[in-house]
Design goal:
By secondary structure, the protein is an alpha/beta fold. It is built from ten helices and eleven strands.
């Protein structure tokens, strides 16, 4: 790992300063002093200066906010389900050696495990923002990103930024047909220990939480849900969620897809414009880097980008954006990458980011239309059956 170690640099801050964890690369997270307080907000709108004064002297680092799930949020789930999700989220920085994690809550009515340090402070938007409409006329988009390493050049929040932008793009174009929750920034990474800073809620806690979210949406009147993943590690667990949801909520149509830009529309656009060959699009790759160069160019450290395409590939097991072959496996990432990247990030362009974001949105719009067709036809068939 000599290449990686040579690129880790000091992130020392002035005493009054603060960092956004999601904006950092994993070498920057690795360089953070372990006595830096990590602040996990429930909701948004907190005053950083006030929080800094309440926590004490020295810089603090803000973790991505949890937008819903807790009591008082837009979609509260059962306390036991939220507690397991929160414990899973907090497990990663504790394993990484961080000594203090403070959970910000807007009121004292929110239950937290006794072991969690809390700070009760006012928030301007404690609920994390609310969907404008929850109804049967709209597909509820549930974008799920993640906070994990993305090589030396992309930030930890890459997956969340991308899937959030795709969901927002869909709603902007077809507001009468779709509504979106805020992008959820924590998922599952079974390779968590390989590179610093990656979170891992845990598969079962993740599944239980997302299933509970669907349940709350059904209670609010929704009957068609689309779990949209920006992170490949979420995929198999979201498949389980929709299988459970089909049994538990048979009146609703819940679905997911492996990743964005991976269906007919997306693959066609990737093949038309990609500059890399097979292996160039996997993780912190040509695709994700292009999208981030378009969406958040200030967070891309392109001078540090390293192409990693020496994946141990065989006929039926290889890495590319749409994984191919008949075999499914989860070998150690260190076998294939020194920096955490899979692919050719140096070949990325903002111009292709524009193209591929448009294709991803177009693909999701097509899925929304199909979800409506599926549910409408099923409701019609059930109505006909009930009249016999």
């Amino acid at each position: 790992m000599q290449l990686v170690l040579s690129l880790v640099f000091d992130v020392t801050l002035a005493p009054e300063a603060w960092l956004n964890y999601g904006d950092l690369t994993w070498p920057e997270v690795a360089a953070l002093p372990r006595d830096t307080p990590l602040v996990l907000p429930l909701g948004s709108g907190y005053d950083p200066e006030r929080v800094g004064r309440q926590i004490g002297a020295g810089p603090i680092c803000w973790l991505p906010a949890i937008p819903y799930g807790w009591a008082g949020s837009l979609l509260p789930v059962a306390p036991a389900v939220f507690d397991r999700a929160l414990a899973g989220i907090l497990s990663a920085p504790l394993e990484d050696g961080f000594q203090r994690i403070v959970v910000l809550t807007p009121s004292d009515s929110i239950g937290l495990p006794a072991s969690v340090e809390r700070l009760i402070t006012p928030a301007l938007a404690p609920g994390g923002g609310r969907p404008r409409r929850i109804s049967r006329e709209r597909v509820m988009l549930i974008p799920v990103g993640h906070t994990e390493q993305h090589g030396l050049h992309l930030p930890m929040n890459t997956d969340t930024v991308i899937i959030g932008a795709i969901a927002e793009g869909v709603v902007e174009i077809i507001p009468a047909e779709a509504e979106a929750l805020p992008a959820f920034p924590y998922g599952v990474s079974t390779h968590r220990r390989s590179f610093a800073g990656t979170f891992n809620m845990g598969g079962r806690a993740f599944e239980d939480f997302q299933l509970a979210v669907i349940g709350r949406l059904v209670e609010a009147g929704a009957d068609r849900m689309y779990l949209m993943s920006g992170h490949g590690g979420n995929g198999s667990f979201l498949v389980n969620v929709v299988k459970y949801a089909g049994e538990r909520f048979p009146g609703a149509f819940s679905t997911t897809a492996y990743l964005h830009t991976s269906g007919k529309i997306g693959v066609r656009a990737l093949e038309q414009y990609r500059r890399s060959g097979r292996g160039g699009m996997g993780h912190a790759c040509e695709l994700e880097t292009s999208l981030m160069l378009h969406l958040r160019p200030e967070l891309c450290r392109m001078e540090r980008a390293v192409d990693e395409i020496d994946f141990i590939a065989t006929e039926n097991y290889y890495m590319d954006w749409v994984e191919g072959g008949e075999l499914i496996a989860n070998p150690p990432w260190e076998d294939d990458t020194r920096t955490g990247a899979y692919g050719a990030g140096t070949l990325a362009t903002a111009e292709n980011g524009v193209r591929w974001l448009a294709a991803a949105i177009e693909e999701k719009i097509a899925h929304v239309h199909e979800i409506h067709e599926q549910q409408n036809r099923r409701l019609s068939r059930r109505a006909q059956a009930s009249q016999r």
